[in-house]
Design a protein that fits this description.
The complex is a heterodimer of chains A (about 290) and B (about 600). Chain A is of the alpha/beta class and about 290 residues long. Helices cover about 30% and strands about 15% of the residues of chain A.
Amino acid sequence: MVMTLEQPRFTYEPVNLSPSDYKSDVPPVWCPGCGDYGVLASFIKAIAELHIPREQLTIVSGIGCSSRFPAFVEAYGIHGTHGRALPIATGLKMARPDLIVVTVGGDGDAFSIGMGHLPHAIRRNIDITYIVMDNEIYGLTKGQPSPTSPIGIEKKASPYGTLDRPINPLQLALAAGATWVGRGFSSKPKELTELIKAAIQHKGFSFLQVISPCVTFYDTYDQFKAITKPLPAEHDPRDRASALKYAMDTQNFYLGLFYQEEGTTFDEGYAALRARVATPNYGVREIMNKYRR
Amino acid sequence: MPDHSLTVRVGGDSAAGGIVTTGEIFARIAAYAGLEVYTTRTIPAEIKGGHVMFQARIAPTEVWSQGDDLDMLVAFDQESVERYAALIRPGGILVYNANDSQAPTLENVTAYALPLNDLAKNINFQRGRNIIMIGALVKLFDLPRAVATAVIEKQLGRRKDLLEQNLLAFKTGYDYVEQHITATAPYRLQPRAGAEKEERLVVSGNQALAMGAIAAGCRFFAGYPITPASDIMEFLAAELPRVGGTMIQAEDEMAALAMVLGASYGGLRAMTATSGPGLALMQELLAHATMTEIPAVIVDVQRAGPSTGMPTKVTQGDLRMSVFGANDDAPRIVLAPVSVEDNFYQIINAFNLAEKYQVPVIFLSDQDMSVRVQTIPAFDLSRVQLEPRLLWDPNSGEKFQRYKDTPSGVSPMSLPGMKGGQYVAEGLEHNAEGAPNYDLQQRTINMEKRARKVRLAVQEVERLKLYERFGDDHAEIGIIGWGSTIGPVREAVEQARAEGIPVAVLYPKMLYPLSHSLIEEFIARRKAILVPELNYVGQLARMIQAEFWREVISFRQFGGIPFRTRDIFDEIKRVHASLHPARRQAPARQKTTPRRRVRR
């Protein structure tokens, strides 16, 4: 079970809809057996169980197989450019703190072309959820190695094996100071649903890596099924060092909530700043008057 | 054009500090005294060290350009003497720091020695050299002393302990000139009667732009530091939260525009500001904004490139990138203001057009007008009118279609939170609902829809008067220009008229799409069209040739400094001579067509 530190806190009027009410008319385009189907099913279940009104949710993505996600959910969405999902979501959340903003994408989008944005979304602690569907491969472009591919992987663009070592996404997010870090697996739908719910409920930036294998170019189902296990009960998700230890474990591949802490979010902080400096009856005329000779 | 103006240049090494401050405070003193001021500067790209120049042109009436020749050179060091002494007009004045430089023997120039370092040492205030210089200048120009001290108190009054020292430094410079140089001021500019009571602002182009953005209802800004656009971000960092808005310093320019698109999708009027290198990075997201039809304003304060180029120097070299950048056909609107004051009004138009047509609008300012501090009339806030975005009505009873094809191409937009308005702003080609769709028929409809919006936006040129037109409308010589070159052009055209050469001038402010009716009518009546630009290839000239099949004379400079009035004037005379070759001259090899043509 996923541990949550606080109760759901959203101010919307809860709605009672079934998961199918959150499915759009657009049928998913993923290959049969793709892990992303499992993520989509768990996601839809999670938002139904959180009773989120469809118009209060916006899903922002970049480019890649998993970034097709927003079209399949009956909600607001932005299908952005490659790597830029996080800053688009940041701008939206700052403009509209009343919304629930979820960012989705793949490992290439998150850790290669969009890597420059991840530490900044983390250090701002912007109140959005980032779900990275990690298949350790570029699927949409037909099977090139990705930043999370294991070393030595032989693909069309690496016929003699890759030389670069993979990124460990959890280690990265933890080291950058993320206030919520978790890992799920598309083949563990029940646990994944709980993780998605907890991530959305977290106040601040929540980073959820989901192992979501690519059946066409890099089928890792059996491999992951063999090594995944839940985080041990003695792990305290408030202990970043312990979270790092389990994230860096090379023998076991742990799933669950690795880390969570409470902190001021960017939109909260900015609202406080605004309240501090706001001046009544202050506008362009008053600004202009400062420049009169 | 001012009947009588004075141009003063201050030069020195930035490591010594305060050259630009000296110029700015002096310019402000003149402005507060009721005079009109037009300033320019060149600074090195380095933070400390390197040569700095500040120039102020001062007159009782409106000033349009920086001035070609110097009435007075104020040299803090030998380098300034060597660089600029030749620019002093006959009868002009050189004031030089006698401790750090020597006066060259110049004919018809009066040189005054000012022992700046000694004077500073005497009052035990080494860093006060620039204020001593201001005191000297105020006396040399015979500006009101009370106004000068009031400005110093206002500008430097935050540190009370330093203020007294600064006022002493001012007095030291003032008294020295009075006692040692000349008892009477060599120059005197009398403000027009009542001028000091007129509502005037002393602002830079970037400040005017940022104020305009707030007036336009901009409540979200994201940017990344880049010269010469950073002070727009800094201005809005201070002011936006005070009016309920948000300013984010992004991690790079792509993030900045991405945040702007996110905020605009959420319903806010949003803007970013950058320079050429940043605009290059934004191209993919610009095309995304075109595709998803999200309004956005993107300011490019152009600086000389390519690459890092000359970050503190001016260019007009980003026109092509603004009009033709991005992958495939990605129509957007491109606007260019023509002056410091115009930045305020045109950025408001930029927001209105972005919202009305649901397109990105690129706003092309440049280094020259962005940093220049100038006196301008107070902004007329009654002229500010906001045109809202076309929003979907949730009570319409119709099923919402975000990208519904319409005669104008503009479709109603929903905002998150509107029940039943859910859609995906889809970067893939899509159908009316926003679902991915690559059918040829759908593709054709959408390409036409997106192009039609921008094509129809040309109707705003007359409605919002997005151009300046002046000069002699019957002239056979026409000038078509854009942006900040309008100042020297205006002066040159007046000079030409005084010499009996009439010239008609058109400055379009919407550079894409170009108004065919406006430009065709203008060029049809001319024998020669001169297009002055600060770039290497003649970017507007080539656009005009391509769109209107009319050969033009492309007059170009790319050295990183504004046109001088004289450059434009000489070119007008040359074009005039080519149209009217003197009869007595040997006709055999006479070239009757203008030299500088754009090749076709």
